[in-house]
Amino acid sequence: MSFHALGLSEELLNALAEMNYVEPTPIQAQAIPIVLQGRDVLGIAQTGTGKTASFTLPMLDILAQGRARARMPRSLILEPTRELATQVSESFERYGRFQKLTKALIIGGVAFGDQDKLLEKGVDVLIATPGRLIDQFERSKILLSGVEILVIDEADRMLDMGFVPDIERICKLLPPRRQTLFFSATMPPPIKRLADQFLNAPKLIEVSRPATANTSIEQRLYRLSARTKRDRLTDLLRSEPIQNAIIFCNRKRDVSDLHTVLKRNGFIVGRLHGDMEQPERQAELDKFRSGALPILVASDVAARGLDVPSVSHVFNYDVPIHPDDYVHRIGRTGRAGRSGIAITFATPAELEAVQAIEKLLQVQIPLVSDTAEPAADVEHPSTSRRRPARSARSEKPTQPDKPASPKNSSATRTPHRAATTRLPAANSPAVRAIAAARTTTRSRSAGATIFRHF
């Protein structure tokens, strides 16, 4: 099936052709005709399935007729994070380049004044995070009585982040006669109740979840002690043919700590976590996309929605707590037919999380190296010298510290040899960064440990 068969306008088809999009993904093929009919949709699909285009494309055609009034958006898209909201905004720009629709992005970290000016003119598409939208409503800067289409995206993430009460409040401010498009990767009972409450005879569209990793991604597992993770990471950053890389940490504090260590040792590196102001985060993303920053240290929430066409390496500095996040993380590489490498560090305390990932993928991650010291690995590396305050300890739950079953444990595997690696371009940003790091380390005395403490 081609996009021509879905009933989209010539303007949209021309925009898709310029981006070399020929065939719709399964969720796009199923959802677009239903949305164009004006029906409600309940879509169960994860990030990476083409979900965003399944609602942005038909919305552009529906909204092509009519015009917005001051402070009264014609459509509303709710996203759980600033990054996802920004990505959706960029999608509207790309797909709607031949249409004259207006949009506004209402997210935290951006001055109210800039947003007020856009809202005052009136917009066809309003993309917002729930908290910021309520702020604007309470400031009497926006009226929601003219919304014709509501999109609730990543509903299960909204639940995780505590946004469900905000969504319920927002929905009560909208006109009852509207079209609602509701998307979630999973359907736990609270999300099912929310969907039942606000959808009218929806069409259920469910696509098979990407529980298997892309076959173009080479996965590797390193079992090691927490004390040696930084040394191993810096060694791999120097030895791997890295064009650019994303390094994932479970906690925003560890993102900052690791970013500091890598910068101190000569790497050109950026960071991305939830406590950064939006202009700073956007600047880091722009540098990473352009190649000015070849390495980016990020948290899961901050990196969700990160869209970079070519990432050569992904490092899981910490094993993700939720198995689905592993699929999302490594999916940043190996895109659009390119090959990629995903490297995961696992301490003995994280073996249970590794097994949960392997159960989801229904495959064992090849074990490349096993240098773990079980007795020394109870604590997280950032807490090995001092115990953090209670608030810091509760920032992210830790993995249960119990031994894995001998039958499936990664500890029982024989390490595999790493695959032959490709050489990077001689003038790539990563090579320049690595060369700078090597120059820094040569000036140190032989045998000195430079990555352990900071």
From TrEMBL:
<feature type="domain" description="Helicase ATP-binding">
    <location>
        <begin position="32"/>
        <end position="205"/>
    </location>
</feature>
<dbReference type="InterPro" id="IPR001650">
    <property type="entry name" value="Helicase_C-like"/>
</dbReference>
<dbReference type="GO" id="GO:0005829">
    <property type="term" value="C:cytosol"/>
</dbReference>
<comment type="similarity">
    <text>Belongs to the DEAD box helicase family.</text>
</comment>
<dbReference type="GO" id="GO:0042255">
    <property type="term" value="P:ribosome assembly"/>
</dbReference>
<keyword id="KW-0963">Cytoplasm</keyword>
<feature type="short sequence motif" description="Q motif">
    <location>
        <begin position="1"/>
        <end position="29"/>
    </location>
</feature>
<feature type="domain" description="DEAD-box RNA helicase Q">
    <location>
        <begin position="1"/>
        <end position="29"/>
    </location>
</feature>
<dbReference type="InterPro" id="IPR014001">
    <property type="entry name" value="Helicase_ATP-bd"/>
</dbReference>
<keyword id="KW-0547">Nucleotide-binding</keyword>
<dbReference type="GO" id="GO:0016787">
    <property type="term" value="F:hydrolase activity"/>
</dbReference>
<dbReference type="GO" id="GO:0003676">
    <property type="term" value="F:nucleic acid binding"/>
</dbReference>
<dbReference type="InterPro" id="IPR027417">
    <property type="entry name" value="P-loop_NTPase"/>
</dbReference>
<feature type="compositionally biased region" description="Low complexity">
    <location>
        <begin position="411"/>
        <end position="431"/>
    </location>
</feature>
<keyword id="KW-0378">Hydrolase</keyword>
<dbReference type="InterPro" id="IPR044742">
    <property type="entry name" value="DEAD/DEAH_RhlB"/>
</dbReference>
<dbReference type="Pfam" id="PF00271">
    <property type="entry name" value="Helicase_C"/>
</dbReference>
<protein>
    <recommendedName>
        <fullName>DEAD-box ATP-dependent RNA helicase RhpA</fullName>
        <ecNumber>3.6.4.13</ecNumber>
    </recommendedName>
</protein>
<dbReference type="InterPro" id="IPR000629">
    <property type="entry name" value="RNA-helicase_DEAD-box_CS"/>
</dbReference>
<keyword id="KW-0067">ATP-binding</keyword>
<dbReference type="InterPro" id="IPR014014">
    <property type="entry name" value="RNA_helicase_DEAD_Q_motif"/>
</dbReference>
<dbReference type="GO" id="GO:0009266">
    <property type="term" value="P:response to temperature stimulus"/>
</dbReference>
<dbReference type="Pfam" id="PF00270">
    <property type="entry name" value="DEAD"/>
</dbReference>
<feature type="domain" description="Helicase C-terminal">
    <location>
        <begin position="216"/>
        <end position="379"/>
    </location>
</feature>
<dbReference type="InterPro" id="IPR011545">
    <property type="entry name" value="DEAD/DEAH_box_helicase_dom"/>
</dbReference>
<dbReference type="InterPro" id="IPR050079">
    <property type="entry name" value="DEAD_box_RNA_helicase"/>
</dbReference>
<feature type="region of interest" description="Disordered">
    <location>
        <begin position="371"/>
        <end position="431"/>
    </location>
</feature>
<keyword id="KW-0347">Helicase</keyword>
<dbReference type="GO" id="GO:0005524">
    <property type="term" value="F:ATP binding"/>
</dbReference>
<dbReference type="GO" id="GO:0003724">
    <property type="term" value="F:RNA helicase activity"/>
</dbReference>
